Amino acid sequence: PDVVVAGETYWAEGLNRAVQVVRLTDGGRALVEYQGLRVELAEDALRIQEKKAPQPAKQKVAVGGVPEVDEVVTEVDLRGMRADEAQTALEIAVDRALLASMKELRVIHGFGTGALQRMVSQYCKTQPAVKSHRFGEKYEGGGGATVISLEK
């Protein structure tokens, strides 16, 4: 969009979902929110979201203090993101995978300069919930993907 406006809804290319802009920050960036999560993205990663008729709000109830998870994420695609954006998307995907009691998460980082692959590897080494990580098999994306094994 030519101008990003706080309070409006946009499509976030890197997150592959609709987000609402909370506020604009320095350096052409915007703090956005979706499903209770806040992430800072570059304004140029936002696309105009088509207006839809308002839908009645669905009430979700968390059971046993566990937050509601709308969809189970089995992979996250970080290609085209900057390392800071990619790390935020990775953190969200790992959190969702853990909430869904998944054993594995596939992270697509591509080949490129190797910066995203290094960030994913470093992230995995610092997370107690990550049991192990490896490059994908050929059918999983080979060296352009990392498969993370999660603790139960």
Automatic annotation (TrEMBL):
Enumerate the Pfam families for this protein.
Smr
The record's listing under InterPro entries reads:
Smr_dom, Smr_dom_sf
Where does the record place the Smr domain?
Answer: 76-151
This chain's protein is named Smr domain-containing protein
Q: Which organism is it from?
A: Eiseniibacteriota bacterium
